[in-house]
What does this fold into?
Amino acid sequence: MRFSPYSEESGGGAGKADKRRALKKLKAFILSPKQEPASLIDKIEQTFISYHLPARVDCREKKIDGILCDVISPEVMASKRIIIYVHGGSFIAGSRASWRSFCASLASECSTQVILPEYRLAPDYPYPAALEDIQIVFRKTYEKLLLQDDREPHIILAADGAGASIVLALVQTLKEELRQAIRNVVLLSPWMDFDPQSPFLADKKATDGLVTADFITTCGHFYTSEENLANPLISPLHIAADQLAQFPPLYIQCGGDEPTTTGLQSFQKKLAEQGIDCILDIWPGMMFMFQMAHEYLPQAHLAVQRVGSYIQNFNKTEETE
It folds into this structure.
């Protein structure tokens, strides 16, 4: 486990006013009990769509076996390494447009091309529609990289929020040959348990000012049926130990105020028991997806930089052999 030294207690970080502004922006991710799913789509699009990308980053639209994707390419990038990013949005919202700017920053920091798919959303397309779309994108990306070079492709899976459920379901369902192409899994503020009976969602009052246990389970109901919420393909905290033994290394980054932190610590421990490396990078005083409030939180920039350093340092040795 790693705790960022960059905190209000150490004299750094955002002030209270900027933190309030960040929370106000990030509330676009939250659906109130009286709102319909369509309103969450509108809020996220209005808040996060940006027509400006970082300098020297190119974005092009591409269909991968019928699935629209952004292909985001920084000027300097590894030739054999690629990130497939599954955006969050509570299973019911989010798009390439609303995550494009963030993924462009991530691509630049990682010196890695990013594929950002437009996967199908619930409730119109419940589980397993999103998973099926990401399976297609992964398989086609793997095949293309394999044709470009006789070396094994280096694919990094990344996601945030509910997207983490989809990414970890993908890892579980891939055949061994394809799973071995995954060098890392990077998860930002991941939601990994939607089971109302889960002990990790027992504290209904816990919140970071944005996310609550009730909100997480509500999103799970949009995605799948009540009896399926404890399925490991929905709630990865329920993955059996023998399956975890086949996982690639993970890097998980979250805010210290998020109510899901205890569950993430438990997941890290289960991985360690199976000999799987998992860095849990907790940022004190931060909330859900603080990385997307960069105009208010200096921690956001540093957090994305840390992801970039992890990806580049982890893969450097293998890619230069």
In short: The radius of gyration is 18 Å.
